[in-house]
Description:
Blueprint: H1 7-18, H2 25-34, H3 41-51, H4 56-68, H5 83-103
Amino acid sequence: LLKFYEMKHLAAYMLLAISGKEPKATDVKKLLKTAGINSNEEQVDKLFNALNGKNLEEVIEQGKEKLSSVPTGAGGKSGGGTAVPIAAAVPETNAAAKEESEDGS
C-alpha cells in the first residue's frame, strides 16, 4: 500500500494522527515545513489517496502482519530464536569484565 512513499510524509501524517487530529494534506506540508523539511506535493497527494477511507490502526496492523512473514536472515533460523542466546551472553561478558578488573588488568 505505502511502499512507494517517502517516510517523511508518512511520519508527519502519523504524528498528526496520534495527536488526535484528522490529518489533512496541508497539515502534513505545514508540519514538515516547520521542521525545515521539504515536502513533495505529489507524494503527499499519493499518500492521502492511498489512506483515503482507511483506519490508520488497521493499516498498521496489516503492515505488522506482512512484516512478520519477512525472513530475518538469521542463518535459516527464525529471528525470534536469537534473543535467548544474546541474553545468555550478557552475563558472561560482565563476568569476564569483572575478572579483568579483579586481576588489575
